[in-house]
Amino acid sequence: MLLRPYQSEIARAVLGSIENNLGLTFSVEIARQGGKNELSAHIEVLLLTMFMSAGGSAVKCSPTFKPQTVISMSRLKQRLDDFGYEGIWMTEMGYIVRLGAARQVFLSAEESSSVVGHTADILLEIDESQDVSKEKYSKEFRPMASSTNATTVHYGTTWDDSTLLEEIKQLNLELEKADGFKRHFRYDWQEVARHNPNYLSFVEAERARMGDDHPLFLSQYALLPIRTGGGFLNRSQIGQLQGNHTRLRGRESNGKIYVAGIDLAGEAEITEELELTVRGRDATVITIANIDFPPDDAVVKEPHIEIVEHYCWVGKKHPDLYMLMADVLRNAWGCSRIVVDATGVGEGVASFLRSSLGSRVLPFKFSQVSKSALGFNLLAAINSGRLKLYKGDGSDDYRELMFELERARSICRPNQTINFFVDPLEGHDDYLMSLALCVEAASRLRPRKAVGR
To answer: For 125, 200, 246, 334, which has the most beta carbons within 10 A of its beta carbon?
Structure first.
């Protein structure tokens, strides 16, 4: 088996624990795409070979059955074929791979999965341990290794300091201090790149696209846990957003390409007793930007984005906004791509705009996953210097946007997702979300290329 040096170090430790019945628990952090899953598959092939006569079961769980568990099974089958076992190994019940009398069992660690009754008398593997529930692991998976004192391996990348992987890692580091036996293995992107020049080029491009302090780069490549519950943006990032271009009131006739992001407010009745202010009441906000595409040989392929205008309506009913928004987007700016909040009551507005303006309008439905991706894309645009605001003009729009950027908070969620928002007790995040949707609109647009005969 041809493994990289860092993979071999882990494999030797795991096999040593199994052969000597030490029952150790290891934690393994390898940078994303650094060969963690390949290492796991190689260990599984070797163990199936070692125990094909004596028999026994190894168990591997993943946070989800589809696609993670399915991918792990497929990889093992491919490696068995590569090592000459094609036509010899068998599949049982759709989630077990058997070679002789030895079995590799693949299970899901989803909360609803039923896994009780399995025994891991050879090895217990926890894939993407940072995304597995501590309670699920403790109650249902950890006991699988208890009767035989089986070795356990937790694989993954770091996230925040509350994950199962981080808990196992910290325990292992304490045990290492006591007895000197290495239980935690950590190989960040720089270590992986020492053995793979192509990987170095890939990660450097990701670093340029996302920035050093992007949550995904920190956790998946630098293997550094991120802090939760702090500010979404720091002072340096807010400063980097500041641009020198002038705010515009309409499109310029110089071939510029414009995009828009629309965050929709709930409908509200205006009463004499209630004073409506941007900060006091949810607002519908349109953010307009012009974009420039980078040259073909640029490291970062994403467009440069200049915010050039804002529109804000407070307390106005959606039907009254339809024609206003359509006129702004079509006639004032000729936007090539428009991403609109289509969550809840926004679905009707998005449908109207799409029927009026065509396929240039893309509905966006907020969910935990989609909002997290929106936040990650916004951070990447800021960190890479691709997103710039118009020069401060003292307007209500500019002041409110800066207020929301400074007050925005972020919270880490399981499965490496985040939530970003302004605390409702402090204000709203209409301008912030509209800005993020505008960045999304820019990322959904690709340059047109002339095709010669």
So the answer is: 125
